[in-house]
Amino acid sequence: FFVSFFELSKIKPDVIVSMGAYSSIPSVIAAWFLRIPIILHEQNAVVGKANKFLSRFAKKIALSFEESAQFLQNQQQKLVITGNPVREEFLFIDKSKKNPEDFTILVLGGSQGSMAINSAVVDMLFLEDFQKSKIKKIIHITGYKGYRDVLGKTKLFRKNDFKYEVLPYAEKIWQYFSEADLVISRAGATAISEIIACSLPSILIPYPYAAENHQQKNAEILEKNGAAIVLLQEQLSAKALLDIINSLKNNADLLRKMSVSSGLLFKKNAVKDLIQIIYGTA
């Protein structure tokens, strides 16, 4: 707190924007003592403990989901639904070069990768029913920790007229979103924001140990709005995953509806709205 107080006294910012991490608490309280206006932004459906505590000090609280308002009953006058900002490249995804017949799945495991998702996808490749499937391509972003393991387990995998692309990480990940017809992913705030920015249907597998189970709550909002199917990790298996994929692949109307629903959830002006709040509060 004292370090934050000293640094803010020296810098004299016009406004503080906090995204809600525990480490932000001393800085936000110091800003309040120094009468610096405070804006909070909550990325997840469940308002985290830090943002709940700090909400009393804030001038404005920006939310990604309308459903988050229920956690801040005493701060309703401060709330603004902005959505969650994403990199501008996601706003200009180009699918014009994609062959609609080439059904492509993008697999994401979050920023650290996911052993559970990696294992299920690898096991799925070796199922007899997968050999019969009409999936043309899987782009599998494994995370650095799981990359070598996935490569080792799939080096003998073969399937005619199919491409399996394995990456540890993708700096320009929006390029892979442009190829995808379906996303399999964890349900962190950034991941789902990028998915809905691209109007993509998804199978969401929430990380079961996320604080306050916020990933499951994020995923349930997408499912409730018809944009995703939620598969809990305790139910995750190669067969369960393939069954859902096939049910979607074989129902073009449902995929289209999910895609439309996904896009409708995205707040395309999130960056602009958040900037306006900042300038209006400073």
Describe the structure concisely for a colleague:
The chain has 282 residues and is an alpha/beta fold. The protein has twelve helices and ten strands. The protein folds into two domains: 97 residues, 3-Layer(aba) Sandwich (Rossmann fold); 177 residues, Rossmann fold (3-Layer(aba) Sandwich).
Q: Any overview of this molecule?
A:
The protein is of the alpha/beta class and 282 residues long. It folds into two domains: 2-84 and 268-281, Glycogen Phosphorylase B (Rossmann fold, 3-Layer(aba) Sandwich), CATH 3.40.50.2000; 89-265, 3-Layer(aba) Sandwich (Rossmann fold). It contains twelve helices and ten strands. The chain has helices at 2-11, 25-33, 49-54, 115-125, 128-132, 144-154, 174-177, 189-197, 214-224, 238-249, 252-265, 270-281; strands at residues 16-18, 38-42, 60-63, 79-81, 104-107, 137-141, 163-167, 182-185, 202-204, 228-230. The strands form two sheets. The chain has a six-stranded parallel β-sheet, with helices on both faces. The protein has a four-stranded parallel β-sheet with strand order 1-2-3-4. Strand 1 (16-18), helix 2 (25-33) and strand 2 form a beta-alpha-beta unit. Helix 4 (115-125) runs parallel beside helix 6 (144-154). The protein is elongated. The mean pLDDT is 94.
